[in-house]
Design a protein that fits this description.
alpha/beta, seven-stranded mixed beta sheet, 13 helices, globular
């Protein structure tokens, strides 16, 4: 049976593939340390779960407005406004079924067939595929490890053509953990103004910065930047609510109206009970957020030190999110104890999960061959065990 041709332009999610393989091996009884999932291992805070239970008892089982419940839109507007120190009206906010849907809808509202989207690389696997589904062409602009994976604005400027429509900004970054400085972001914003482009900032990791790293939102630079910026955010990472599927977009009213039209003809509204839980997250205590961030920081520092102790591995310090992104290119081309040559980072990751029982995502999935992504959203004990296995497995290659 023939399927639609549009599927031929996109690839399955490599991160989901790695997580699925790790789960499959675990289900068969094998002890696998999975660094694949971009998902906090902590449970959703208790007061949020209780709010969901209360909402169910109160009848939160029906459709809501497409754009989200008035209460959640108001709470999200207040939350975003406080974070960025500017006024946000509820009408500028739409609630989506996860931040990924906000990106999907924004791309489909803003991009035409043949447009180009500048994607600072390495980048999360879905951005390029969503752009292609919207008829646009992804244009990777590669950042360098020696620059901390912060993209050079001059390189973005050289990549802009008459077809360019949008620049993506993701800070903190998935997969590298890079956090962009204000100078870099101002230069990118200036390019957007000069060339009349949209900015889309995916801020889903903005609460997870470490050390002296500081999150900066370009829309705070002034009204000319804000009017061309779509801010994507959500509760998944900060509040350990990945499965609740609640994201937000903050954008100029015509963009929000366009996204609502698209959403109204696709998923309609985010789940009513999840929206009630999100209100509790945004309006409730924040102690759990800081506790989780502190634990991630502890794990981050341990994993970074462990990776740097492995001969042949180099790793830029991740300053945000919850990923390490080591360079393992020194091991590509080597042979396993069975004599199989590892001709790519994909083959290396296959070797790691099948032989060492360590799940990692190959850098090729993020437009960064020779690297692997390791998530430290697992227990300290698992990280310690996984780092030992990784070092031993790499040490066996010849």
């Amino acid at each position: 049976m023939k399927l639609a041709g549009r599927l031929s332009v996109i690839e399955p999610s490599m991160t989901m593939k790695v997580s699925a393989r790790a789960a499959e091996l675990k289900a068969s009884g094998l002890d696998v340390v999975s660094f694949g999932a971009g998902e906090p291992d902590f449970d959703t805070p208790e007061h949020i779960k209780q709010a969901a239970k209360d909402a169910l008892d109160a009848g939160a089982t029906k459709y809501t407005a497409v754009e989200g419940t008035p209460r959640l839109r108001k709470a999200a507007a207040a939350w975003l406004g406080k974070a960025h120190d500017f006024a946000v009206s509820p009408g500028e906010v739409i609630v989506t079924s996860g931040a990924k849907q906000a990106v999907f809808h924004a791309f489909h509202v803003l991009l035409e067939e043949g447009d180009e989207v500048i994607l600072p690389a390495p980048y999360w696997v879905s951005y390029s595929e969503i752009a292609k589904l919207a008829g646009a062409t992804p244009v990777p602009v590669v950042s360098r490890a020696e620059d901390g994976f912060v993209v050079d604005p001059d390189a973005i400027g050289r990549a802009i053509t008459p077809r360019t429509r949008l620049i993506l900004v993701v800070s903190p970054s998935n997969p590298t953990g890079a956090v962009y400085d204000e100078k870099t972001l101002r230069a990118i914003a200036d390019l957007a103004i000069k060339h009349d482009l949209w900015l889309l900032t995916d801020d889903i990791y903005r609460t997870l910065c470490y050390g002296d790293a500081r999150f900066v939102q370009p829309a705070t630079f002034g009204p000319e930047v804000r009017r061309r910026t779509v801010i994507v955010d959500g509760v998944s990472k900060a509040f350990a609510m990945t499965g609740w599927r609640i994201g937000f977009a903050l954008a100029p009213l015509p963009v929000i109206e366009g996204m609502a039209t698209l959403q109204g003809q696709s998923t309609t509204n985010a789940a009513a009970v999840s929206q009630a839980a999100a209100v509790a997250a945004l309006e409730g205590p924040t102690g759990d957020l800081e506790r989780m961030r502190g634990e991630f920081d502890k794990r981050r520092r341990y994993m970074l030190a462990a990776l740097r102790a492995i001969p042949g591995v180099t790793c830029v310090e991740p300053r945000g999110a919850f990923y390490a992104f080591p360079d393992v290119s020194a091991f590509v081309g080597r042979k396993t104890p069975r004599g199989n040559r590892l001709d790519s980072d994909l083959a290396l990751c296959d070797y790691l999960i099948e032989d060492a029982r360590v799940a990692a995502v190959p850098g090729t999935a993020f437009f960064a061959p020779g690297f692997i992504r390791l998530s430290y959203t697992t227990s300290q004990a698992n990280i310690e065990k996984g780092m030992v296995r990784l070092a031993e497995a790499l040490g066996k290659l010849s």
